[in-house]
Amino acid sequence: MNISVRRGDAAGQQTPLLVVPIFEGAAPDASLGAEAAAAHARGDVRGKEGETVLLYPASGPERILLVGMGKADSVTAEKVRRLGGTAAKQAAKARAPNATLLLPSTSVAPREAARAAAEGAVLGSYTLTELKARPEDAPEPVALGTLDILLPEGLDEGEAAEGARVGEIAARGENLARTLGNLPGNVATPTYLAGVAERIGGEHGMGVTVLGPAEMETEGMGALLAVARGTDEEPRFIVLEHRGGAEGDRPLVLVGKGLTFDAGGISIKPALGMEEMKFDMCGGAGVLGAMQAIGELGVKANVIGIVPSSENLLGGRAMKPGDIFRAHSGKTIEVVNTDAEGRLILADALSYARRFEPLAVIDAATLTGACVIALGHQATGLMGNDPALVAEVLAAGERTGERCWELPMFDEYREQIRSDYADIKNSGGRPAGAISAGWFLREFVSYPWCHLDVAGTAWGDGKLSYQVKGATGNPTRLFVDWVLARAG
Ligand code: BES
Ligand code: MN
Ligand code: ZN
């Protein structure tokens, strides 16, 4: 999609679809014509949030979509993002090759507003068509080729254009993460993810390192290798290095769980809904999506992306409850539950990250069902060892709409993962399951660190206008936003 920002008002736009935000208690601008005035006068559109009315005016644009935004003083970037999503969904329905969106003039700064509108439009245009035949009688879908963002008087054009550029690229990264998440386990294997990383690295001049089982053995990645024992699918340890900063500058590191299918291992999961465990690599997909965007944006900072990747299946050589393995850090881990495998592969990745002497590390993982019980699908569970970093990530979550909520890491929770036979065990049981998992990871970090449990937010039913059923791409945009904020 080509997004451009230009100054103008709604009057006289020649476009297949003009999208106009409407606020509570304010009539549509008279220049929109008699149809819009009538829709308001008859009460079909009152500006309530989420309300939409499609009009076919006698002159001017082919269609006008009026979109309720709520009260004018309550507009947030998230509401503008949803406006962009609504525009994209309507454009797809109308098979419109281009559309024009009137950016509302509100307390949201033009850069943030244009960024949110662009994100919403790119995310709302997302489809996964690769794996499904189109019914013979269904017409070929029309992709939204161009979105014109119209800027009302008084809003800075340069600021808005820069915002739209960032939003478009970040959202395209997020759409990549969605596709990787939605692809089934037999397609999106560890080897496949490594191939995607090689493509990203090649396109943006990044360093790419991919370790296979033999190199993992040499590295001493006993925890990742323990998980990989149960499957014939080879594991991969993927590292992307974006060197956009000065040579000696310490990097920011993003780590994502790339578990391409989680059957639970010998501690097998119930059959019902197990197909959703193809999404267990969404943290890793978020890292790859973010690295693509970081490369495209040419971010002036050193950023490393790390994705440990394996399947978790059952087999004659699979790890068993009670087995003890030596992790990359040197610590021994008693595996009391083979379904707590995400923390095992992350332990080795977090330990590997030490060699980069990171300024800070954020990991993202579909780590625990307990996090979904705690927060549902409305927020990512966040834990960390550094209050300043935690505050930064919470703020990035607010800005991007990829909201996070901090869970406490009281020392007492650490007791739950004490082992009688090894340095640590991989499950602390059911109480506070998201937090004991966070504590497990914390045993492998020695730098400012923040953990995002995206089990409840990485995929969903697609209720928001800029989402569709399946992978959300979360936390790709949060990653990008945090890196941009750090890069200044
Ligand atoms: N990938 C799952 C977590 C998960 C479950 C994410 C459901 C999203 C939806 C993870 O590997 C897992 O199985 N965790 C266990 C941990 C337990 C054995 C300590 C869990 O949450 O039950
Ligand atoms: Mn599991
Ligand atoms: Zn898992």
UniProtKB/TrEMBL annotation:
Q: Which residues form the Cytosol aminopeptidase domain?
A: 337-344
The EC number(s) given in the record are 3.4.11.1, 3.4.11.10
Q: Known catalysed reaction(s)? A: Release of an N-terminal amino acid, preferentially leucine, but not glutamic or aspartic acids; Release of an N-terminal amino acid, Xaa-|-Yaa-, in which Xaa is preferably Leu, but may be other amino acids including Pro although not Arg or Lys, and Yaa may be Pro. Amino acid amides and methyl esters are also readily hydrolyzed, but rates on arylamides are exceedingly low
For the ligand (Mn(2+) 1), the binding residues are D262, D339, E341
Q: Which PROSITE patterns match?
A: CYTOSOL_AP
GO terms (BP aspect): proteolysis
Recorded hits in InterPro entries, A to Z, give:
Leucine_aapep/pepB, Macro_dom-like, Peptidase_M17_C, Peptidase_M17_leu_NH2_pept, Peptidase_M17_N
**Keywords in alphabetical order:** Aminopeptidase, Cytoplasm, Hydrolase, Manganese, Metal-binding, Protease
**GO annotations of cellular component type:** cytoplasm
List the active-site residues. K269, R343
What GO MF terms are annotated? Answer: manganese ion binding; metalloaminopeptidase activity
Describe cofactor binding as the record notes it: Binds 2 manganese ions per subunit.
> Which prosthetic group or cofactor does it need?
Mn(2+)
Return the similarity comment: Belongs to the peptidase M17 family.
Q: What does this protein do?
A: Presumably involved in the processing and regular turnover of intracellular proteins. Catalyzes the removal of unsubstituted N-terminal amino acids from various peptides.
Tell me the protein's name. Answer: Probable cytosol aminopeptidase
Please give the organism: uncultured Gemmatimonadota bacterium
Q: Which gene encodes it?
A: pepA
